Amino acid sequence: MKSTIKYLASLVSFICLLSGCNSKFPEKISLPDAARDPTFKVTVQGIDVSQMSITVQSQNKTTVVIPAGTILTSNSSGTQNMMTASTVRFVFTGNSTPETMSQNVEVYCINRFLHAPTQESSYEVPAQDSTSPLVKLAACLDGNGAEHYVRQLAVWMVADDLMNMSKQDVLKKFTEKFIPIMKENLNNKKDSIINVYRKNAPADDNHTDDEVIELLYSILPQAAKQAAQEHLDEYEEAAPLLQNCGIDIATKRFFQKS
Question: How far, in Å, are 36, 60, 66, 87, 183 from residue 69 at the CA level?
Answer without folding.
Answer: 18, 25, 9, 8, 33
